[in-house]
Specification:
single chain; alpha/beta; Rossmann fold; four-stranded parallel beta sheet; binds ligand L6N33NVT; binds fe (ii) ion
Length: 336
């Protein structure tokens, strides 16, 4: 029996940083995708339909049909390091660790699937981190993404007897470092294209329109990121027209508009011949950018009469993107 003050020694003062993204299947196969979608689409933050009505649709229809279709999409973008979203998030953690040095221990985890938040939080604690900054890599806040990470974090903490102190990274949709990074990285990529785009389409992930009416700030934060970025680009690329749209519609409800696929067709039909598409709501390339935008988006635009199409990379591990992450994380850690 230990005496009351005879607790195991803690390595006092070690800081941890846990980068978090959405999560992705373990393999580009229908069974792995089904497992992933079952967890993702059972989250009441993502599908806000009462479980009694939603479960029969999810299990009776969606999980019988969507996994094969989605697995095909994942198979087209899968890499030797696995799913792009996981590979890039892991790389972001490695580069951030190099940038932070001894100032903090950096790890990464996923809201759905692997590696899980609970496992990685415990790993940081076991490595001596008594204070952990949890950083959901979503520039814009939404209940379906940011708040859902907090739900899962709460579940993980609930199961821990000896918890680390927690801080969370606020949304950074209008943070100067974020707009700086997007401005620099997108101008660099546009300059490297083999054509001069007439239009830059900023495509954000969509959400049901109802979430906006219910007070979710996601739509307004996307619009503000787009406005701030467009203002910067107007000085550097005055001939470029910047438009905003929302992609990845899911289900039958009305989603935020205009829809990316419809805008691509409308632009081509209205005479736009050269377009570049960027996805400033995603911190890492994933199936939604690499398949939906870069493959299907291209087909839509060219079939409607467009001539040149490019999808620009997300910030990923670009110099500008990593500089931004370092600034955001250091700003939070300095409060400790
Ligand atoms: C960037 C923010 C995201 C928001 C907001 C978001 C909302 C949201 N998503 C779905 C349904 C699906 N999303 C899927 C993939 C996916 N979604 C995001 C990000 C946001 N989602 C990312 C980064 C990814 C890519 C994951 C990867 O493995 O690469 C999918 C799976 C793919 C597919 O089958 O199409 C679904 C389904 C809803 C319903 C929703 C808001 C309510
Ligand atoms: Fe999504
Ligand atoms: Fe999609």
């Amino acid at each position: 029996m230990r005496k009351p003050d005879d607790h195991p020694p803690a390595m006092v003062g070690r800081l941890g940083v846990l980068l978090v993204n959405l999560g992705t299947p373990d393999a580009p196969t229908p069974s792995a995708v089904r497992r992933y979608l079952a967890e993702f689409l059972s989250d009441p933050r993502v599908v806000e339909i009462p479980a009694i009505a939603w479960k029969p649709i999810l299990h009776g229809i969606i999980l019988r049909t969507r996994p094969a279709k989605s697995a095909h999409a994942y198979a087209q973008v899968w890499t030797e390091e696995g799913s792009p979203l996981a590979a890039i998030t892991a790389q972001q953690a490695r580069v951030l660790q190099q940038r932070l040095g001894d100032a903090a221990l950096v790890d990464w985890g996923m809201r759905y699937g692997n590696p899980g938040l609970a496992e990685r939080l415990q790993r940081l604690k076991d490595a001596g981190c008594d204070r952990v900054l949890v950083a959901p890599l979503y520039p814009q806040y939404s209940g379906a993404t940011t708040a859902s990470v907090m739900d899962k974090l709460g579940d993980a903490l609930k199961a821990m007897r000896w918890q680390p102190a927690i801080r969370t990274l606020p949304p950074y949709y209008d943070h100067r470092a974020h707009i700086d990074a997007l401005e620099q990285d997108l101008t660099r990529q546009i300059a490297a294209l083999d054509f001069v785009p007439q239009v830059l389409l900023l495509s954000f992930h969509g959400m049901p329109e109802r979430t906006l009416q219910l007070g979710d700030p996601y739509h307004c934060q996307c619009r503000k990121t787009a406005r701030l970025l467009a203002e910067r680009l107007a000085t550097r690329l005055p001939d470029l027209r910047v438009e905003t749209s929302f992609q990845s519609r899911f289900g039958r409800a009305k989603w935020l508009e205009p829809a990316t696929d419809a805008v691509l067709v409308k632009e081509a039909r209205a005479g736009t011949r050269r377009i570049a598409v960027a996805a400033p709501g995603f911190s890492a390339d994933c199936v939604e950018t690499l398949e939906e935008l870069a493959l299907r988006g291209r087909d839509d635009f060219l079939a409607a009469g467009g001539e040149a199409f490019a999808t620009l990379d997300c910030l990923n591990t670009s110099r500008a993107g990593m500089e931004m992450l370092e600034i955001l994380v250091k700003q939070e850690l300095s409060g400790w």
